[in-house]
Amino acid sequence: MVEKTDMKFDPEEVIEEFEALTKEAGKVQEETLKKILKENGGTVYLQQWGLNGRTDAESFTARVPLVTHKDLEPYIQRIADGDLSPVLTGKPITTISLSSGTTQGRPKFVPFNDELMESTLQIYKTSFAFRNKEFPIGNGKALQFIYSSKQFKTKGGLAAGTATTNVYRNAQFKKTMKAMQTPCCSPDEVIFGPDFHQSLYCHLLCGLIFRDEVQVISSTFAHSIVQAFRTFEQVWEELVVDIREGVLSSRITVPSTRSAMSKLLKPDPEQADTIFRKCSGLSNWYGLIPALFPNAKYIYGIMTGSMEPYLKKLRHYAAELPLQSADYGSSEGWIGANVNPKLPPELVTYAVLPNIGYFEFIPLRGNLDGLEPTPVGLAEVKLGEEYEIVVTNFAGLYRYRLGDVVKIKGFHNATPELQFICRRNLLLSINIDKNTEKDLQLAVEAAAKLLVDEKSEVVDFTSHVNVAADPGHYVVFWELSGEASDETLQECCNCLDKSFVDAGYLGSRKANAIGALELRVVKRGTFHKILDHFVGLGGAVSQFKTPRCVGPNNSTLLQILCNDVVKSYFSTAFC
């Protein structure tokens, strides 16, 4: 399928195609399901549900059950172990993606095929076409902080790597980026380098070498962009020396990376002086990105959900440069494209592409009988309502619960525009209290405001439910950029406790059924250790998301955090 992709990129044509698809969204959904079931009806998985050749939505939803990854894991494992029969798909699966989420501390396996690659490119092209109307770019380069993890072979000989690695390694991806006038300014040896720290340094150096050509700064997640420029603050003088002398820093020891970078690096004292002058003239690094890259048009990456806490710092580096939130998808597949690029990340919506999968939506408003509501189709969702998304795609996932909660914010023609709300699974819960990732984020934002006078900020955070204590209580871990007084941190701790407004939590705290919230401040660099741990498990930096709650099964992570605690405070808010 992928070979057919035309590398002449015509934004108007892409928009026209999108408009046609979304005008007939309901009909396109029926056709898409029919196509998926025709191609895969003979598989081991689908045959057991007695569809007997039926391809209509009513038969499909009546016979095939809703599932989670746990239900499909044995089938995916069979494929990974080399079973060549049509287990989940009619055509063989040749590649496995590792998701950024984890199952018992290890990344989940998800099937990846040509159809998923094609939908990836369709999403990229669609959002780019709309973005380019508002923020046109000429022939230039993209400074992309992308890192590929090593691919390995499964027991059955299938190539396995993170979803981002599988995309970056695909020849079509590079051709598409080139057609969209945003080729990466770093060579492959940097992207696919084995040492993340060396690759990050070289990405920054490549950006500076091509600083006048850079039009877009991007990464998979906003976290990686913030991390890159936090690193720049530490190493900028060394980068300037490399450019001045045309000699690569001795910190780069990987031979292939050194060789590729040495071909790009030439002595340029004038450019070095300019960069030095720009950096020296900044106040607390405000506006660093436009200062370094005068022709940059915007910053691009996933900025919703667990990435929202990094927006404040990203805006500090970006100054007036627009932040563009990337499209909505997961390792399991894509859902929607950002076709309203003028919206800030906090308000961004995603228009569902009705031909890349079959989508169902479970209403979050429960039934009066206590049973879970019946999922509705894409054409039946209601404005303002919240739903959990269910995905059926071309890569062997059938009625798969993604676990994401979305809100219907509007419609583009007949297709819904979704706003990501949160992951459905509860983060923090001891008894009747129910707090999500969003609740934790809002509490941290409220408490972090108290640090402003101390000229400190929260670099990163996570949480844990301590049920070993009696009564159990919430623990919030903070890494700070600078020192803060005990008095201020005690206030922060109290503010965190009071900011969880869930009725179950408030009632339990007042009745002492939940103990005082604990704020633990960890050493600088602790969350970097967590990233290193994730990479050590085979994950890619591009896919790293700080876990917002560390469960009891993740003992290694908990140990890293607890070993690095330098200060601890208990809330007195409900005393």
Automatic annotation (TrEMBL):
Arranged from A to Z, the UniProt key words for this protein are: Ligase
Q: What GO cellular-component annotations does this UniProt entry give?
A: cytoplasm
Domain GH3 C-terminal residues, every copy: 438-551
All residue ranges annotated as the GH3 middle domain in the record? 350-423
Q: Which domain of life is it from?
A: Eukaryota
What does the record give under GO molecular function? acid-amino acid ligase activity
Family, per entry = Belongs to the IAA-amido conjugating enzyme family.
Task: Kindly provide the name given to this protein in its UniProt entry.
Answer: Probable indole-3-acetic acid-amido synthetase GH3.5
This protein's species is Nicotiana sylvestris
